[in-house]
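User: I'm designing a mutation panel for DUF3579 domain-containing protein and want to avoid disrupting the core. Could you give me a predicted structure to guide residue selection? Please restate the sequence first so the numbering is unambiguous.

Assistant: Good idea. Sequence first, for numbering, then the predicted structure tokens:
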Amino acid sequence: MTAPLSNTFIIVGLTQDGKKFRPSDWAERLCGVMSAFGAEKKMKYSPYVGPGDYSGEKAVFVDGRLEEIEPMAYRFLLNFAGDNDLQVISGVCPVNL
């Protein structure tokens, strides 16, 4: 199953005014909400959501397939970005975490 590019997005750790979002580990914390314990009894990020860097800024990469699999989680991530006035880049290449 391939996600339409329009559903895949990146949340960048900059507000719409260009201010750096805090705390500095916000991306890891947000992805931690979407993680689960794996077979090794260690926390493991979702295959659809992961932290990273985008143009030198902290970011969260969201695979558009999440919208079909877990629509509430997908909306939660979009709402998080909107509530915190963060920059969202839509229609980017598929996520390979």
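For picking mutation sites, this is relevant: The longest helix spans residues 71-83. The chain has one domain: 5-90.
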